[in-house]
């Protein structure tokens, strides 16, 4: 099977008032820069990355520039050594200057990578989680570009981790039956008032969720009040996460985290600038035992490596629509294994692809079952929207990565 | 004076064979994504950022999206508080997602910022270096977005540094007469063979240069041979710099630097991935007393802050066509002051703007006179190409930032 054609689609979706808002992204239009690969047999692979509307066309243009070199490639041969193909794309001698490995060109690479994995899983007639689980350790390692990680992990160590984790794999596969737990982000957008927040929470609790996220990062007294509303309505046993979306300076973050500690957050997410490894390290020491989660805006595996080496974060939130796609997500997940830090994806794909990756991560890498972010706003636009019931993602059975849009 | 119109220009220039090549950028087409601001009085401000050709149009598109909010702004009012305007542009609620503060959107911001400074200096009928030197400490501080630096430097400290450096300013102003020293990068592009390298070097020495850069980052034996050619032809007293353009892993960098130490390089530039602060820190310890220089691909002030806090580098190479323009360049220069690390710009602008900034940095910030990179390939395309003679940049006298293209 060969890749015969690459096309893009600029898909933008208006949200209802307040949905998707946080302390910095005040008027998002959830949009996907979509890569569409067509094989010579007519099979279609779909790859997604999220943007907030404006500029989505820039990512689509970059996809076209980067992906042309995939046309004519035999699919199994490409995927048998995808790590090398990824590296060549990421180091495009002209486009690399626009990153490197970050920003528009890296988002474009993510979309392309995700389309390759979708097409490949479909060609094998397996859901992505199962296609990945079918590979042996060496085959998984071949998917990955491990360059610039050599000082902490190499191919041999990746294979060793994967083989070591074969133990217990069958037991962990029971997650396929129970479904992977979800947490609800859509209760507490920044644009929702206290009443809306409470209503959303009650509905979410009724739906079976036990973990919830609230957007903070504005006036501290307002943040604290809203956090207490969340804690009261959700109850003392609920798991609650607070997300500042990078809006604090380090001094402000220290103050804010200490104040917000009273609601016992499971983590504080993106307290300050996502490039500021030193600030996160200092903050972690100041606010112990509070945990920091970060990843939504960490551009690549190299920066994740730096966060892990610094011991700055207790939860990794890689996103295969921010990193260079499924394969770099898996690379970061292996770093999580190595440093013993749980991987709890941010879901720019609305959880469609990450539901597959969370299953793989738990079963094959032995990463702990935490929960997967759930954002339902785009459900009606997917061919096979994630099925979430009783607060759990039900294991997807259709071939591919559940990325096809209507 | 008001900004009446924003336009862009996608300017691309073919280079002669081998020129501009390094270990990763094998076939550059030097290109500028140009911002053109027109005032209601008909004055034109030009802002540049460099790309390597493909994708230059993405930056131009992003400029149009970002810059529209400047139309109608009064120029002196805008520049009196440019730091705040910069922050608003950098945190555009939709386009920020494509960075943040890196990649295509940040390059676009750089081009816009540079156009604002060019227009402003022209409106004052002063060369940019002089327009900047005419400002007092508070006015300089107002140009800067210091957000996310609060833990190491704030407005008050910026003002204090500037006022402290008033001492000696008159003496340092003698640089205006002698001209700022240059170093020659164009002798040793990666695509030049040993013979070409030697010829270039001899010509450069004849022109008065005493400092030279060589591209390395390929097969180590070839790198070592070429470095020895450079040292022999340039002579024992010459200053030579080696630039690996990010092509080494950390283990490879350690080996390569130790081998290359025999030619006594003044610095090793971009030994590994520009996001890898920890690797640079480890490398610095391993190769002492060799110095590391980095900056060409460091996307913003936050990452520079991290490099400085880690003590990883001995020379900063910020580039106002990579950072968000002149103002973020000045912010990084102030960080250089604070940490006592010399600032030796990378010149994506071919030195046209940086010749102004190097003068300001030395005179107003008291940063040491080192030398400014010189790359002559685009000389014929500028209205007022930098005048370099006897190995020194001659102080530009025309109003503005010397950015206008033919």
What does this structure look like?
The structure is a homodimer of 406-residue chains. The first copy, chain A, is globular and about 60 Å long. The two termini of chain A are 25 Å apart. Chain A folds into 2 domains: 3-125, Enolase-like, N-terminal domain (Enolase-like, domain 1, 2-Layer Sandwich), CATH 3.30.390; 169-393, Enolase-like C-terminal domain (TIM Barrel, Alpha-Beta Barrel). In chain A, strand 5 (180-188), helix 10 (194-206) and strand 6 form a beta-alpha-beta unit. The mean pLDDT of chain A is 97. In chain A, helix 14 (301-310) runs parallel beside helix 15. In chain A, strands 5, 6, 7, 8, 9, 10, 11, 12 and 13 form a 9-stranded mixed β-sheet that branches. By secondary structure, the first copy, chain A, is α/β, with parallel strands linked by helices. The first copy, chain A, contains 16 helices and 13 strands. At the A-B interface, strand 4, helix 1, helix 4, helix 12 and helix 13 of A face strand 4, helix 1, helix 4, helix 12 and helix 13 of B.
């Amino acid at each position: 099977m060969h890749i015969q054609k690459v096309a893009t689609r600029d898909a933008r979706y208006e949200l209802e008032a307040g949905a998707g808002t946080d302390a910095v992204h005040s008027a998002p239009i959830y949009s996907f820069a979509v890569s569409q690969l067509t094989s010579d047999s007519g099979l279609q692979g779909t790859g997604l990355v999220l943007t907030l509307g404006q500029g989505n066309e820039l990512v689509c243009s970059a996809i076209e520039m980067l992906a042309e070199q995939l046309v004519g490639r035999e699919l199994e041969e490409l995927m048998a050594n995808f790590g090398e193909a990824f590296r060549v794309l990421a180091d495009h001698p002209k486009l690399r200057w626009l990153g490197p490995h970050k920003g528009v060109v890296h988002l474009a690479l993510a979309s392309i990578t995700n389309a390759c994995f979708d097409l490949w899983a479909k060609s094998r007639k397996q859901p992505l989680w199962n296609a990945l689980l079918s590979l042996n350790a060496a085959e998984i390692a071949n998917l990955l570009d491990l360059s610039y990680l050599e000082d902490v992990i190499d191919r041999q160590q990746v294979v060793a981790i994967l083989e070591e984790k074969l133990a217990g794999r069958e037991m962990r596969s029971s997650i396929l039956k129970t479904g992977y737990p979800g947490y609800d982000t859509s209760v507490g957008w920044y644009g929702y008032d206290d009443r809306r927040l409470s209503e959303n929470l009650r509905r979410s609790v009724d739906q079976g969720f036990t973990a919830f996220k609230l957007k903070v990062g504005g006036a501290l007294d307002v943040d604290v009040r809203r956090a207490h509303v969340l804690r009261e309505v959700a109850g003392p046993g609920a798991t609650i996460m607070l997300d500042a979306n990078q809006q604090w300076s380090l001094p402000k973050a220290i103050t804010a985290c200490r104040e917000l500690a009273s609601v016992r957050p499971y983590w504080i997410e993106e307290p300050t600038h996502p490039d500021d490894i030193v600030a996160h390290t200092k903050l972690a020491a100041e606010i112990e035992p509070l945990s920091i989660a970060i990843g939504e805006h960490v551009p690549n595996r190299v920066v994740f490596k730096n966060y892990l080496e610094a011991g700055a974060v207790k939860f990794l939130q890689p996103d295969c629509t921010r990193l260079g796609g499924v394969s770099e997500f898996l690379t970061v997940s292996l770093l999580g294994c190595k440093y013993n830090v749980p991987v709890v994806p941010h879901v720019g794909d609305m959880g469609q692809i990450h539901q597959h990756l969370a299953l793989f991560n738990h079963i094959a890498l032995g990463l702990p079952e935490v929960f997967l972010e759930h954002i339902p706003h785009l459900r009606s636009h997917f061919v096979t929207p994630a099925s979430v019931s009783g607060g759990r993602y039900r294991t997807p059975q259709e071939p591919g990565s559940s990325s096809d849009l209507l």
